[in-house]
Every structure is written in structure tokens, then in C-alpha cells.
């Protein structure tokens, strides 16, 4: 919370603006993944600065969204033909967020209309997946729903309708769980101030999630020297197999 104080003072000095402003921060700007990484909890907190320090009669609501990085995905649908499961239809998506979590002070349905939710990608049903295949609209919607459901069941897409706590109409905080199998990359933590079903202020912070220690070394070697890494992996597998066979022969 100490980092919030100078930001809040700066916002107060510039408080001549006609619209409210957000002063956000996150508990961690970088998350390191090591061998014992079992997940992390990200705290998003901040303050709402109103012009002249006058709070509106109707309390404002806060929505926070943590997402990223994007990746292309090909989703295939399996069908059972002659007793055998085979790949049938497929759909391609250009930029799918590998992780998406949204938390709000109240359920999103009562905070914003459908148009606003779609513009700011608020809610699992409003994630822009950028479809690239020539499927029919009905088939595209089916694949989009299937993709979101797969991510949700894997713990990578989360929606918390009461995950933001607003104190005295000014201070807010939300906790977002980062799962152990989250991909590395640059993430964005977006905060939206909602009044009268409209977004009146927004702010963004970036978060880096990367591998550290031995995991980083292995990932770097696999990326830069893929052929050597492959040979080493095969050699280690052969050595372990030979050692296991030798041990069993002695028993």
C-alpha cells in the first residue's frame, strides 16, 4: 500500500479534472516460476479520486481484468465414426488470451449493458478470440463456447462476480489467483470504474510472468539450441532406461 500513497497525492494535486480518476497498483509486477511454483495470488488495489473530493450519491463499481498473453489456437472437434473417434470439424483463432480473469464488485450483468461489455471485453462471453476460419456463424459460436469452456475447466478462465471489495466508496482491492500452469509472458491488469452502466475511467498495469532458475535455463536452451536440446533429451532418456534395466537385472 506504500506505493499507492505518492500516486494518490499526485492524483489529488491534479484533481481539477471533471471526471474521476483511478490510481491503481498491483502487489507484484513480476512473478517468477521455479520448480516449486504452485501458483500465486495477485492483489490489485487502488483508489478512486473524485473531482473536488466529492463522492457521488450512487456508489461506483469496479471491474478488474487480468489477461494475456495471446496465442493462436486450432480447435478440433472429435466425432465417433464406425466406433472410432476421429477429428472432424476445426476452427482457427488468431489471438486467444492464454489467461483471463475478471472480478467485479457486483455481477457484470447489472453493471454494464451488452455493448459496453463487448467493447471492453468484460466477461467470459465477451472475450475477443479473433476467429480466422471460414466456418459458419453457428459453427463459430459453438467452437468459441467450447474453447472458453475448456479454458474455464482448466482454471485459466475465471469470472468472480463479487471479487472486488470497495471501501468507503474510495478504496478498492481484488485478489486474482494465478494457477501453477499459467504460461509465461506479459500480462495486463486493467481496472475499470463503472458509473450509470458506463466506463468513466480506466487504468492499466503490466505484469511479467517468467521462468527463473533452472527452469529458465532449460527453456532458454530449448529455444536457442533446439537440436542440441533434443539430442541431450534423447541421450538422457536412453541413459535412464539403461540404468533402470541394469538395476532390475540385479534384483
Automatic annotation (TrEMBL):
The keyword Transmembrane helix applies. Pfam families: Alph_Pro_TM. Keywords: Membrane, Transmembrane, Transmembrane helix. It comes from the Bacteria. The chain crosses the membrane at residues 227-248. This is Transmembrane protein (Alph_Pro_TM).
